[in-house]
Amino acid sequence: MCEMRLARKRWTICTISILLIFYKTTERARSDEHQEAQLTSEGELSTSRLMVNSSEKVLGKNLPTYLQSTQEGWKVNATLVTMIRKDILRFLDAERDVSVVKSSFKPGDTIHYILDRHRTLNVSHTLHSLLPEVSPLKNKRFRTCAVVGNSGILLKSGCGKEIDSHDFVIRCNLAPLVEFAEDVGLKSDFTTMNPSVIQRVYGGLRNETVREHFVERLGMLNDSVLWIPAFMVKGGEKHVEGVNELILKRKLPVHMAYPSLRLIHAVRGYWLTNKVNIKRPSTGLLMYTMATRFCDEIHLYGFWPFPKDAAGNPVKYHYYDTLKYRYFSRAGPHRMPLEFKTLKMLHSKGALKLMTSTCRQA
Ligand SMILES: *[C@@H]1O[C@H](CO)[C@@H](O)[C@H](O)[C@H]1NC(C)=O
Ligand SMILES: *[C@@H]1O[C@H](CO)[C@@H](O)[C@H](O)[C@H]1NC(C)=O
Ligand SMILES: *[C@@H]1O[C@H](CO)[C@@H](O)[C@H](O)[C@H]1NC(C)=O
Ligand SMILES: *[C@@H]1O[C@H](CO)[C@@H](O)[C@H](O)[C@H]1NC(C)=O
Ligand SMILES: *[C@@H]1O[C@H](CO)[C@@H](O)[C@H](O)[C@H]1NC(C)=O
């Protein structure tokens, strides 16, 4: 009993130290390039997530002030937005890297998985026929954009109207909308989907019922972009193929996009150069990074990787399911608290707006 307590205590102290290191490293990034170069191939891109199980203890009732919401008086700094856009353009061009295009491949070509270079994927006729001819973001420019993460912080936020009022709305992992419209809105211009969603939510598209359910959800996209990271790791290719076949067969009105083979490394490179040592950027961070290319003002919603809100109330991991927070793991792919802290800092400088409170009703 006593030993267990001691172990727990140590664990807590250890966790606090690690968190402190995370939070204090922006100025002093350590260059463990070697370790970081070994990207793990486990898992996929996730949205707004945190692996810190013990963070309940650390962040429990009293959030550090830098995590508390300061939405009042936020103003965009257009100079800084332009600087960031230019900086990111040195690493990636979202207009190009948002998707591979048809002319780059022919059916039968082999692609090496980005995070698993030893394994390969054959470009099928189905996949090839769905590749866009040109970037779905070609010549796009928007005044305001929303990037919507999937944290439970959105529940009871009443942010639906505000989210839908943006010129371009980016959503993650084909999250459900209709039942949550008041809090998350309905407008979708760009929606990401990890292949694993097909297994987890749509029963592998194995029967008519689940296929209809999926077709209905895609209908909500209303002819906008569905972005599938299909070349990250082996495992989801069967599902990607199933989705593609269904889209072709039913002539579903969606514009497909499959991120370029260099996108994730380029995004990581940008943040690393800015002393944010992220092993594997989350979908949310990827979307923000890409959005800087074509949005003058970026508002983030549903980004909250903590099990409690600022008032100490529990916050669901996803607003729509019962997935639990992951255990803290240094081997895990994402670094949500670090990402969050970075976004918070950018918020305070007017580079983006990180919305973590309820929205004022018009
Ligand atoms: C972590 O979470 C699990 C299940 O959610 C719980 O049983 C366990 O006590 C938690 N551990 C700590 C250190 O909070
Ligand atoms: C906007 O950002 C730039 C670059 O960081 C900075 O020099 C400038 O002072 C900021 N302007 C305001 C009004 O904060
Ligand atoms: C890819 O195509 C090659 C040649 O057509 C074939 O030998 C190989 O088995 C295929 N690989 C997969 C994963 O389907
Ligand atoms: C279809 O598949 C889903 C998920 O695998 C399952 O829950 C459901 O019962 C199946 N429906 C029929 C009609 O077979
Ligand atoms: C679907 O798209 C059209 C054209 O972009 C737009 O006018 C309409 O409002 C959209 N409908 C929904 C439900 O988002």
TrEMBL record:
Membrane topology: Single-pass type II membrane protein
Keyword line: Disulfide bond, Glycoprotein, Glycosyltransferase, Golgi apparatus, Membrane, Secreted, Signal-anchor, Transferase, Transmembrane, Transmembrane helix
Compartments in which it is found: Golgi apparatus membrane; Secreted
GO molecular function: alpha-N-acetylneuraminate alpha-2,8-sialyltransferase activity
Primary location group: Golgi
One GO cellular component term: extracellular region
InterPro entries (UniProt xref): Glyco_trans_29, Glycosyltr_29_Sialyltrsf, GT29-like_sf, Sialyl_trans
BP terms from Gene Ontology: N-glycan processing; oligosaccharide metabolic process
Disulfide bonds: C145-C295
Catalytic activity as recorded in UniProt: [N-acetyl-alpha-D-neuraminosyl-(2->8)](n) + CMP-N-acetyl-beta-neuraminate = [N-acetyl-alpha-D-neuraminosyl-(2->8)](n+1) + CMP + H(+)
Record's keyword annotation contains Transferase: yes
One Pfam family in the UniProt entry: Glyco_transf_29
Sequence similarity: Belongs to the glycosyltransferase 29 family.
Chain's role: Catalyzes the transfer of a sialic acid from a CMP-linked sialic acid donor onto a terminal alpha-2,3-, alpha-2,6-, or alpha-2,8-linked sialic acid of an N-linked glycan protein acceptor through alpha-2,8-linkages. Therefore, participates in polysialic acid synthesis on various sialylated N-acetyllactosaminyl oligosaccharides, including NCAM1 N-glycans, FETUB N-glycans and AHSG. It is noteworthy that alpha-2,3-linked sialic acid is apparently a better acceptor than alpha-2,6-linked sialic acid.
Name recorded for this polypeptide: CMP-N-acetylneuraminate-poly-alpha-2,8-sialyltransferase
Originating species: Pygocentrus nattereri
Organism classification: Eukaryota, Metazoa, Chordata, Craniata, Vertebrata
Gene: ST8SIA4
